[in-house]
Amino acid sequence: MTVQPKPLLDRVNIPADLRKLPESDLRQFADELRRETIEAVSITGGHLGSGLGVVELTAAIHYVFNTPDDRLIWDVGHQAYPHKILTGRRDRIRTLRQGGGLSGFTKRSESIYDPFGAAHSSTSISAGLGMAVGRDLQGRRNNVIAVIGDGSMSAGMAYEAMNNAGAMHATRLIVILNDNDMSIAPPVGAVSAALSRAASSKTYLGLRHTAAEFAKFLPKRLNLAAKRAEELARGFVTGGTLFEELGFYYVGPIDGHNLDHLLPVLKNVRDAEDAGPVLIHVVTKKGHGYAPAEAAGDKYHGVSKFDVVTGAQSKPKSNAPSYQNVFGESLVKEAERDDKIVAITAAMPSGTGVNIFAKAFPSRTFDVGIAEQHAVTFAAGLATEGMKPFCAIYSTFLQRGYDQVVHDVAIQRLPVRFAIDRAGLVGADGATHAGSFDLAYLGCLPHFVIMAPSDEAELTHMVATQVAIDDGPSAVRYPRGDGEGVEIPVRGVPLEIGKGRVICEGSKIAILSLGTRLREALKAAGELATFGLSTTVADMRFAKPIDTDLITRLAREHEVLITVEEGSIGGFSTQVLHFLAESGLLDNGLKVRPMVLPDRFIDHEAPNVQYDEAGLMARHITATALAALGRSDAQLPARA
């Protein structure tokens, strides 16, 4: 591939350099910035479509505002790749999402141009309001700009923040709504742009302020009538009545790819003295400027490495299906026999496998948007009516609905079935998306049944098990990526609740594995055999209730007992240790060694490297067993 020259981009290292360019150069600069983004992501993979949609907006914001003194917050962060290129990180952009490289999201420790870290959606307005209030309390005058996508506007947190900001009449707080799928606004053009430019001008804002001051001297009824008439008139012409009701001054919609429309509006809003919080409604197209991404926004939202010319993605070949697809297909088979099964997801249908269910049962599938709290309680409501809801949410996102899990599901003992995708470490998405804590935060709740499959066949059985559980909530957690390549049954068979299985029997060391570390546990058993140590490996299946009968037998028959799980402290091992202590099984000298994720966040890397760093590979299990037996002189296998 021939790399085209980028003479303007080559002159810009930080936004201050951009602001030295004449305004007439910004169109060419944006084109070069888009090409650089495409070329970089073609090498690293990552989020592409959203970033391409905000190239002009990124350039315009940094050109008009005095970043980093003016704070710029990108909601979610996956649209911030052009921002990273423009803010001193172009020389590292081809390390994106690689070990030791740039994060795929904004990160405070990475750059002064990232004032707030993001990776989960709908936080930008809350953070921006906090920054604006902190600025005011310290007597500063800088602007705070939050760029939020319309998908993120489906979450209640965004409206909570807007309601608060509007009530406070927060000044110099600018929210830019990046509407990238036309879900809110009709097509926009020159008339809309002219109206937005006029509505954001000093003249209009000055007149509006004067009118507001005059209205204070009118009787209360006339004052309110005048205010509502002005809002309603602008609402009819430009839309945005909802945002006005929340206390924001609405401007838009405007074409987010037209710099002639963007720049004057941003300048007007920048220079407004006391307009209160402002919302600028910008309409963009995901993948803009790159034909393959424009044609298939869903496939180019997140991409693997790809050919820039053809757009063809180079995905690693695997003979095993992904866990998410196994879940989706297993649920379809169960739903063919049970018309009470429904599926719920929070804006991640393809990421959770719910898209497979949706094709088979569209009327029984519900995508509630980025609203995990609502998804959980919605599922609880369905359960009260005798339905069998499967609530499929990433582990890291389910954290956002934890109060609802406790109060609306667990306390009422409702049979909501949670399918927890992305359990454990997740690779390039890093710490913000790792499913590290679900075993701990669910395991402490009464009446929960919690399962973790060791392979895709086990996942099929666990979906069937969840269908059969009708007296309380249940969860099955499974990792990102492909399965182990085992044969998958046509239909799952419900498992006996709280019972594990022994994979191989030994006499000296017992390894209790939960989840997909089972392969590593079996490798460790093989390594320990070379030291003459006989090892039992058990696939425990259930984190709650634990198999107390099996644990009791293994504790009595072995000298060392090791638990292994892909989760933080407080999960499966805690359940086991509590039982062993309570039952007195620790009193006879049993050596117990829990192996969990370390007490720190693990940065983005390849998953196998992350697990090696976490100390959860076979060699670490072997080392743990040998150390428990005092075999410090043993030579361990090298890192794979």
What does this protein look like?
The chain is an alpha/beta fold. The protein folds into three domains: 295 residues, Thiamin diphosphate (ThDP)-binding fold, Pyr/PP domains (Rossmann fold); 155 residues, Thiamin diphosphate (ThDP)-binding fold, Pyr/PP domains (Rossmann fold, 3-Layer(aba) Sandwich), CATH 3.40.50.970; 128 residues, Rossmann fold (3-Layer(aba) Sandwich). Helices cover 41% and strands 14% of the residues. The chain contains 26 helices and 19 strands. The strands form four sheets. It has a seven-stranded mixed sheet, sandwiched between helices. α22 links the parallel β15 and β16. The radius of gyration is 28 Å and the shape is globular. The relative contact order is 0.08. About 1% of the residues have low confidence.
Overall number of domains: 3
Taken from the alpha-carbon principal axes, the silhouette is globular
Output the CATH class name of the largest domain. Answer: Alpha Beta
| Number of distinct helices | 26
- Structural classification: alpha/beta
Number of strands: 19
Largest sheet: 7 strands, mixed
Q: Mean of the pLDDT scores?
A: 89
Q: Per CATH, what is the topology of the largest domain?
A: Rossmann fold
List keywords for this structure.
3 domains, Rossmann fold, five-stranded parallel β-sheet, 640 residues, seven-stranded mixed β-sheet
